[in-house]
Amino acid sequence: MTERTTCGQKDKIIYAVEKLSQPMTQLALSIHARPELSFAEFHSAQALIAPLRAAGFRIEEQVAGLATAFRASWHSGKPGPRIALLAEYDALAGLGHACGHNLIGTASVTAALALIEACPDIAGCIEVIGTPAEEEGGGKIIMANHGVFDDVDAVMMFHPREKNMVTRGALACVDALFKFYGKASHAASAPHLGISALDAVIQTFVGINALRQFFTDDVRVHGIITDGGSATNIVPAYAEAKFLLRAASVEGLKTVQQKVFAAAQAAAQMSGARLEIEEGLTYAERNNNLALAAGFQRNLQLLGLEVVNPPQSGGVGSSDIGNVSQLTAAIHPYLRIGDVIPHTPEFAAAAASDAGTNTMLTAAKALAMTAYDLCYDATLYQTVRAEFSQWKSRSQTSGDTH
Fold first, then answer.
1. 217 and 351 together in one domain
2. Residue 351 lies in a domain
3. Dist. CA 62–CA 260, nearest whole Å
4. d(Cα 150, Cα 381) in Å, to the nearest integer?
5. Which terminal residue of the chain has fewer beta carbons within 10 Å of its beta carbon, N or C?
6. 3-class DSSP state for residue 184?
7. N- to C-terminal Cα distance for the chain?
8. Residue 273 lies in a domain
9. How many CB atoms lie within 10 A of CB 379?
10. Cβ atoms 333, 309 nearer than 8 A
11. How many beta carbons lie within 10 A of that of residue 184, not counting itself?
């Protein structure tokens, strides 16, 4: 065993993770080798469910009506908190597991298996909740709207990154698809009879770029043309563009949406095209539970890891765990797998490297140890829940003033 603590039960958890290291590493690599996109993670979900089912967890599939969502529960019958370890397992189009979700899902499964191996009669309930479509689709948001997290006292997961950080934030975000309908015509002999939907798309980009100097520093707006026409000698009758809008909070995001949507509507009026807007689910900003994060950090330190402070501004993305963090105490710490940036081919390679899988096992140890603390350290549990209750009260009071 590579680490020892002053707590015999935590030493048992560490040992249990190390016993699982070979099959869990193979599990992470098998998911990595077969990347699946949002809502289509059938192999990945079943691969994660299999060892939980074999260990005696109660399995619920197609949770919240999602084909690849699941909940695996272990309840000894003793009273105590309900702790959820969240699993992600969707991949990125064209890049595979360039966000390391193969490591995320496997770490949560490993943590749950090790925890009940070391403490089969643990107080409370330990769950692994499989949450599909983090990258695109907002699986956690759909599950939250179906009440999946309503009775959960705390949720935890880890995310691979280039630094060890336990309280890094995340932006609120929403995606929007702008669909422009024009009129086809011969681009050379009768262009005056056409209405270019592509021109409307281009003017949308121009309008949004003109807005950028008036956005606050936290705002990010990025888009792609998903359909620009079919032939150069035909005035495009249809074109579309997809944008992702981000801001520090959902409230701030509403202002960004109004401005960006107005730019698209103005582009439609200028070109004569008709506009339809398809709006995605809104990812909320992340509320890190500081007491829970501190407990996780203490366990990382027992394992020999040092933590750095997150960036004061910039350098953050978005995740649908933000919506879950509005409902219960939550942490989403990051652990280093190398000098790599997410959503790149280099990160995808690191997610299948020895460094990546070793970090995954370290994350599993820290997650399981923190779950153990919540179940047996009444002071920590009460502090975590009190912090969330106070945050919720302030949030609701603030919301009433708008």
1. no
2. yes
3. 36
4. 17
5. C
6. coil
7. 55
8. yes
9. 9
10. no
11. 18
Per-residue model confidence as pLDDT tens digits over 138-165:
999 999 999 999 999 999 999 999 999 9
Whether this model's pTM surpasses 0.85: yes
Backbone dihedral angles phi then psi of residue 361, each to the nearest 5 degrees: -70, -35
pLDDT tens per residue, range 329-367: 999 999 999 999 999 999 999 999 999 999 999 999 999
Tokens of 249: 């909070």
- Domain co-membership, 164 together with 178: no
Q: Are residues 73 and 110 in the same domain?
A: yes
**CB contact at 8 A, 178 and 224:** no
Q: Is residue 1 included in any domain, yes or no?
A: no
Please name the amino acid found at residue 322. Answer: G
91: nearest Cα among 45, 34, 130, 141: 34
In three-state secondary structure terms, 325 is coil
**Residue found by looking up tokens 């652990």 in the block:** 335
Give the CA count within 13 Å in the CB-facing half-sphere of 204: 32
DSSP code per residue over 326-387: TTSEEE--EEE-SS--SSSHHHHHHTTSHHHHHHHHHHHHHHHHHHHHHHH-HHHHHHHHHH
State the DSSP code for 285.
P
Number of CB atoms found within 10 A of residue 391's CB: 17
